[in-house]
Amino acid sequence: MQARTRFMLAVVVLFLLMTGPFLLTALIVWVETAGEAREMLVKVLSPHLTLGTLLTAMGFAAGVGVVRVLFRQYVQGLLRMSENLRLMLGANRGFRVQPEGPPEVQQLAVAANELASQRDALLEDVEAQIARAKASVELEKDRLAALMSELTQSVVVCNLDGRVLLYNNRARAQFRALSEAPGVAGGGELIGLGRSIYGVFERNLIAHALDTIQQRLRRGATQAQANFVTTTRAGQLLRVQMAPVLSLAAPALAAAAEGETAGGQGAEQGDAGVVGAADETLPATAAAAAAEGAPERTLTGFILMLDNITRNFETESRRDQMLHNLTEGSRASLANVRAAADMLEFEDLPDEMRTRFRKVVRDEVQSMSQRLDQTANEFADSLKARWPLEEMFGADLIAAAQRRIEARIGLPTKLEEVDETLWVKVDSFSLIQAITYLASRLSDEFEVREVRFRLTAAGRLVHLDLIWSGQAMSTETVMSWELEPMKIEDESSPLTVRDVIDRHDGEMWLEREKVRHRAFFRILLPAATPQEQAEAETYLRGESRPEYYDFDLFAWSEKSHALDDRLLSELSYTVFDTETTGLNPSQGDEIIQIGATRILNGKLLRAESFEQLVDPERPLAPESAKIHGITSEMLRGQPTIDKVLPAFHAFSADTVLIAHNAAFDMRFLQLKEEQTGLRFDHPVIDTLLLSAVVHPNQESHRLEAIAERLGLTIIGRHTALGDAIVTAEVFLKLIPLLAEKGIRTLRDAREAAEKTYYARIKY
Fold it and tell me: Domain check: are 157 and 101 in the same one?
């Protein structure tokens, strides 16, 4: 029962106590008196009844006033002190209770402040010891961060859920370049701590590579890894190397811990052992235990090392073209020199000199020609073995071939039948070049207007068919195409189609479909080594600073139950704020800035932020600039809301949205659903409502007032990102205060917030 309810009941009881005996006595006298006696009693009391009633009312009012004063001084004062004590004990250690009210309450406040000071002294001593203990671990982490930031290769580390727990600056820049909207908020919506890598890569790509690693680990490989090539939505080729993150079984870990304790280096080396994917990173004792008992190593995550090889392919292609042109041009030039030497003969030269001169010219020219031929042949042989065969998703190979054919020769392509489950082991660059060459010859010499692709399994091989309709082709023509150096318009290669096929240990032949008047080249390619199909549960369970990593995510995993039943401390959040042209979204006011940051694993990720100005496509009131500092000039040329909201939607995917006075910000987003086709149906938490839940007796729940109560410093107020960061810090402070009231899950928070007065505000 709330304090105000108890106060009202106390007033009613006081009234009954004061008036009850008088009314009861009067009733008894009235009942027992009869006739003339009752009339005389009325005559006697009537002149004094008004005065008695007035005196009774005055006494009652005085009693209520005294009770009210005592209630405010003792009951409400103690309630405020209780809230302040919780702030002092949990969220804001520097907070002290102001002695106010009656002397007894003031003495209680003084005693509480003294206890808090003693507690702070003890906590400072404990924190100093913890800081010293963490110093060495932090040093190791800083070294790792420095190493990661200096790597020229993109590195991403994930847990078994595919959630990103580490990435370096190189990876951040690379994924930003792959973003669908790189001009919006830096394209930062693709990668971030706790986000799913499956937003970039197909799930089956990762599952296949993980299955390969697990098979190799079962066979006892010490450094199991997998490689594959994939294409991005922008048509770029990525070479990906995957390595496992391994942990030791319990006995080995116990042995490692015992050895580390004896050596005095448990914290530093133990952490490195979890991060490392190779045995060299394990502590010495753990390595010895692994060697003696061969403990089972379990897969806890994986490392992806990424290379964008699109430019490499283009560079190599230009180099091949240059060398080929050099050899062909030199050969032609030498032939001209030889012809000129035959014609430029002086008649007055002695025959012997003429003969010797001719022999020298011809011998030198022939020698140079032989050397050029030998160089060209040797370079062609090196081209055949330059590119290693790598595992690639068959559908990706076909898609890349389609793009190249349509871009290079303008020939339309279609899919006839493509098995989406097939993997091939290929040199994708040379194979796509060979397919494009065949398509160009079909277009030029047989006027083929369309080609189709078919990809089917054939045991341990894969059939790749290039299909067309048109006139018949002889076997001799096919053989000549196979053996001639490939040339596609102005692009040439010393390699032949036969060289490419031999590189893959494959075959190629021509087949005809007489009934359908079609023909096709069938290319036999090696399939990737078949693996046992891994169970989906293997990748959905997990025992699982720059500021871009958080190893606590190894122990974080998606739960099967609904978000409403998840603990607030387990969820990932996008904390956001908007700046607008005004306060009436339903009357045409627009968003002019969105700022957001993320909370993951109970940590504020300041480096992972979203901040973007928005062109409202309407005039901006001059007085609004006094609040947020944004002017019309700053908004000119910025993207419009239909460009910004998709990027923000991607940034906030799979998270709970948090805002202060969230009803206001969400209304702006909801009014844009029809225009953008996006629904912001995320769970939403409002820090204003939660503050009213935690501190119902406080007068103000403005963001500044809450931050001051919780001991937070406000920086960048009335900028979208600045407000989002302050809101995030407030929410992190509120979580333990909510837990004290039994509010631990998202459902608890929602239900408690809905009961507050502020939840009734609509926009």
Answer: no
Q: Identify whether residues 676 and 611 lie together within a single domain.
A: yes
649 is a catalytic site residue: no
The span from the CA of 367 to the CA of 373, in Å, is 10
pLDDT of residue 111: 79
Stated as kind and residue range, the H or E segment containing 574 is: strand 573-580
- Helix segments in 222-276, DSSP class H: 250-263, 266-275
In-domain check, residue 533 = no
Predicted pLDDT at 577:
93
| Domain limits for position 464 | 390-526
Q: Count Cβ atoms below 10 Å from residue 369 Cβ, excluding itself.
A: 15
Using the 3D structure, point to which of 505, 526, 547 is the last residue of a domain. Answer: 526
CA distances from 242 to 214, 222, 759 (A): 12, 14, 49
What count of other Cβ atoms lies within 10 Å of the Cβ of residue 588? 11
- pLDDT tens, residue by residue, 595-606: 999 998 888 988
The residue that leads in pLDDT, 620 or 50, is 620
Average pLDDT for residues 389-404, to the nearest whole number? Answer: 89
Domain CATH number, residue 281:
3.30.450.20
Domain boundary among 309, 336, 370: 309
Q: Does 294 fall in a domain?
A: yes
Does one domain contain both 340 and 374? yes
Number of domains within the chain: 5
Same domain, 564 and 483: no
What pairing do the DSSP bridges indicate for beta strands 591-600 and 491-496? unpaired
Please state, in angstroms and rounded to a whole number, the distance separating the CA atoms of residues 669 and 696.
29
Q: Are residues 450 and 356 in the same domain?
A: no
Q: Are 492 and 378 in a shared domain?
A: no
Please say whether the beta carbons of 548 and 607 come within 8 A.
yes
Q: Which residues lie across from 393 on neighbouring strands?
A: 423
The residue-averaged pLDDT of 355-368 equals 71
Residue 330 pLDDT greater than 70, yes or no: no
Q: How many CA atoms lie within 13 A of 418 on its CB side?
A: 17
Identify which of 178-182, 190-194, 363-367, 495-499 has the greatest average pLDDT.
Answer: 495-499
47-87 pLDDT, tens digit per residue, is: 666 666 676 677 667 766 766 666 666 666 677 777 777 77
CB 447 within 8 A of CB 434: no
Query: What band does 177 get if pLDDT is binned at 50, 70 and 90?
Result: low
Find the helix or strand (DSSP H, E) in which 26 lies.
helix 3-32
Among all chains, which residue has been given the structure tokens 């949205």?
657
* Whether the Cβ atoms of residue 727 and residue 662 lie closer than 8 Å to each other: no
Residue 359 token pair: 């022999």
Q: What is the pLDDT of residues 442-490, one digit of tens each?
A: 999 999 999 999 999 988 899 999 999 988 788 889 999 999 999 887 7
pLDDT greater at residue 45 or residue 183: 45
Cα first-last separation, the chain? 32
Q: Choose, from 628, 682, 695, 718, the residue flagged as catalytic.
A: 718
Examine the domain organization and report whether 255 and 178 are in the same domain.
Answer: yes
Token pair of 144 as six digits: 């790792």
Helices and strands (DSSP H and E) totals, the chain: 25, 19
Q: Look at residue 548 and tell me if it is in a domain.
A: no
pLDDT tens for each residue of 333-345: 666 666 556 655 6
Question: Are the CB atoms for 455 and 464 separated by under 8 Å?
Answer: yes
